[in-house]
Amino acid sequence: MNPAPRTVLLTGAAGAIGTLMRELLPPYGYRLRLLDMVPVPGAPDAIQADLADREALREAVRGVDAVIHLAGISLEADFEKILAANIVGLQHLYEAVREEGVPRVLFASSNHAVGFTPRPRPGEPPLAVDIRHRPDTHYGLSKAFGEDLAQFYWDRHGVETVSVRIGSCFPEPATVRSLSLWLSPGDCARLFHAALSAPEVGHTVVYGSSANTREWWDLSSARALGYEPKDDSEMYAEKIIAEHGLPAPGSAVDRFMGGHFCEDAPRWPH
Asked: I want to staple 109 with a disulfide (CB 3.0 to 4.6 A). Which of 163, 209, 215, 249 is the partner?
């Protein structure tokens, strides 16, 4: 294993996952440089900049060992907004990384890049990472683009990336669907550390979830980086199912990995 990089730029540091990682990553030996377009609570030295500001991005990445890119729009929105933040803004970041010689990016992709993939049924094998992109939203489309952009920057410029298709990263799962996709904050930090410290990743796509009993995903590419998840959503299952019930058979939540984000889809046979 390579030694963990000491200085990491964390974009989107004021967001939900960024806030969790600000506390959980430093014990692994990282010194975080924080960036967000809004002030980061409790971090007066954080860089406040928009992804549209190319010079600010270049200054932000200068001298870091890696970038964890969480910034951007994290919910569905008008395409023009998604385009500016998640597509053009991401390209700006990769150009800054290339220009400053930063060797590695951890890109926060999403399960919504493959949201229209039918979810596996009991007894079926978990879903591999090499399934084709089937985005369920403009947001998911931007994450599919991000994975392809990461591949391009590896093939063309030698910038390494681990693209993490994050499931549902909260202190506790909140829905029946998230019982299969939950990534505990502790496991998120373990996965990010593995992605930052593993040698020779090229462009690697991994699923980001804990070791859930109801797992839909094949975590082998994440485990190959050194990721060993420790948490399981099953401890919350009885309570969540009692509160919400199981998805209606044939509903989007029952059929697709993207759940209710696919609700406007026609009922194609699968």
From this structure: 163
Q: Could you say which of 139, 153, 207, 227 is catalytic?
A: 139
Amino acid at 186: G
Q: For 137-182, what is each residue's pLDDT tens digit?
A: 999 999 999 999 999 999 999 999 999 999 999 999 999 999 999 9
Q: Facing residues of 206 across strands?
A: 164
Q: Report the alpha-carbon distance of residue 226 to residue 7 in Å, rounded.
A: 20
b or e along 226-263 (b: 16 or more beta carbons within 10 Å of the residue's beta carbon)? ebebebbbeeebeebeeeeeebeeeebbebbbbbebbe
Alpha-carbon distance of 31 to 225, in angstroms, equals: 21
Whether residue 153 lies in the annotated active site = no
Give every CB contact of residue 28 below 8 A, 6+ residues apart in sequence.
4, 189, 193
What domains lie within the chain, and their CATH numbers?
7-262 (3.40.50.720)
pTM value > 0.85: yes
CB atoms within 10 A of CB 66: 26
